[in-house]
């Protein structure tokens, strides 16, 4: 079995990975797997009501999660690919465990080459939340992730991008910046 197929099977079965992103390591899983998302929330000690970010190699990987018209408009904006997550109206098929108490979902087409390649090779979007416990500093290395989470996650080695801060979050409809 190829490495990509093995990793895809791991994720489909509810596995959690730690992987490099634009500014830090992220924790990720198959967004459609509720048990995996809950596993991430427990690792982070984070409340589900806050919602999560879903990242992709290209906008088409996000069609199941957000409304098509909004996604089309966002895909033609200058924000993607890049370290900018956009709040878009959640589609009817978007699981509540991703969007939390919101009617929107934060989504991003990543500019991190390794992570974009990972999403493309897996043919799926991934949950993306900083690899840390809620309120703690985001982890920046594979080694730090291994120390923090041990065998509970599969660490994908690589280098984080040059970003110093987590992704900016913008409400696409209003243009309001929610996090810089």
Please characterize this protein's 3D structure.
With 180 residues, this protein is of the alpha/beta class. It has one domain: DHBP synthase (Alpha-Beta Complex). 28% of the residues lie in helices and 21% in strands. It contains 6 helices and 9 strands. The longest helix has 11 residues, at 34-44. The protein is globular and about 40 Å long. The N and C termini lie far apart (41 Å).
Q: What would CATH call the homologous superfamily?
A: DHBP synthase
The CATH class: Alpha Beta
Please name the CATH topology. DHBP synthase
Ranges where pLDDT stays below 50 over 5 or more residues in a row are none
Spatial gap, N to C terminus = 41 Å
What is the beta-strand fraction? 15-25%
N-to-C SSE series? HEEHEHEHEHEHEEE
Strand order of the largest sheet: 7-1-2-6-3-5-4-8-9
Proper CATH architecture: Alpha-Beta Complex
Shape: globular
Number of strands: 9
Helix content: 25-40%
**How many structurally independent domains?**
1
